[in-house]
Amino acid sequence: MLNTSARTLFITLDLPYPPRAGAPLRNWQNINLMKQYGDVAVLSIFKGQPPEKTLPGIENWYHYDLGQKRPLKERLERRLSVLQPWRYSYIDWFYTQPAVELLKQILQDLKPSIVVFEHLWLCRYLRVVQGYPCKIIFDEHNIEADLFEQKIHQIIEFLPKIKMNLQKNYIQSMERKIAYKSDQIWVCSQSDADKLQQRYGHKLNPYVVPNGINVTNYETVRNGQCTPAFQAQFNPHTLIFIGTFSYPPNVEAAQFLTQEFYPKIKQLYPNTLLIIVGKNSPPALTAATQKEPGILWTGLVEDVKPYLAAASVVITPLFKGGGTRLKILEAFAAGRPVVSTTKGAEGLEVETQKHLLIDDTVEGMVDAVNQFWSNPTLYKNCVDNAYNLVKTRYSWEAVADKIQPLIQKLISQD
């Protein structure tokens, strides 16, 4: 524990609580773990007003609503942005002068020792924070230039591909800038640390702060005390996929499940129920599957635990993306076996046949689900091993042990 306290300000682009997706879960983890070193404040910047005015355990929460009318200068700049095809509008969208003024006021009033940027997309506020005597942590949820490059490979048309390459260069320049100007860079996994150094040079020294979860929150699911959602408690052949569908890799995964995987698993188990949980459900996909009673789209849910309780297997067929999969860690803590692709389990210290089953083909994933449903010993062994892993490596307590020396080093630099 530190000898002196450290006041921390988090700047996020998500609703901090309740955390219902991967990024908010990581943010909420870091917010809570930093409380052991001193007061924590949060500035959230997104469109809309939060449903609640307070955060559990956080005294100072500030919010700027991006839905407010922009200053004239910014509105003109947005119209002229068509003349700058290299700029990536998502970065500019989160930046506005009224939020700058709010941030300045917070920095003056609270005088934080540490400011944590959650996500690259907030990078234009870096210059503001640099004007104050505080340490800066850049929490890199994904290596964004790497993800953008994955998207480019899918583009066939010449002009869109040229534009996306220009935008990738812009993202890359902003990512490089904030990485080198931050006092510490946190990444989700060693895989992401390697990607960051390969792209921006080995002078960078990213620290691995794993995604973790509050394991005790899922204990009611694991011990059977959580009431399952829907009628699924009557169906032992229930699968669940959890994701936010504004994230393209999750849309691709949902397409794979509904169009390729589900018809094949249904041939083996005609009563199979596939539950797809998450906000921003793609209309084309939901419409295409609405006549299939065995596929249920829930949209945004208040609490994912009843849906995990309904499932006998959690499936994560991701083929692109970065970071690590909190949906897998949730399943491990909830005592639910996981079938995943290699990419889906990337960044987690897992072994197939020990903690979960991994395959990258539709036939292989169907077989993996069949193995869990037909082999109780394999089911139990994977569930038990995965639970032990999440407790020892990916619990909040385990992540706290990773963070402590980093904060000690950061503060001792003064």
Explain this structure:
- This protein is of the alpha/beta class and 414 residues long.
- 45% of the residues lie in helices and 14% in strands.
- It has helices at 22-34, 72-80, 89-93, 97-110, 126-130, 144-152, 158-181, 190-200, 219-222, 248-268, 283-289, 305-310, 326-334, 362-374, 376-393, 396-412, and strands spanning 8-12, 40-46, 60-65, 114-118, 135-140, 184-187, 207-208, 238-242, 273-277, 295-299, 313-316, 338-340, 357-358.
- Strands 3-2-1-4-5-6-7 form a seven-stranded parallel β-sheet, with helices on both faces. A six-stranded parallel β-sheet has the order 10-9-8-11-12-13, with helices on both faces.
- α6 (144-152) packs antiparallel against α7 (158-181) and α10 packs across α14 (362-374).
- The chain is globular, with a radius of gyration of 22 Å.
Q: Could you give the count of β-strands?
A: 13
- Determine and state the CATH class of the largest domain: Alpha Beta
CATH topology of the largest domain: Rossmann fold
The helix-strand sequence is: EHEEHHHEHEHHEHEHEHEHEHEHEEHHH
Structural class by helix and strand composition? alpha/beta
Low-confidence stretches: none
The CATH homologous superfamily of the largest domain is named Glycogen Phosphorylase B
Question: How far is the N terminus from the C terminus?
Answer: 17 Å
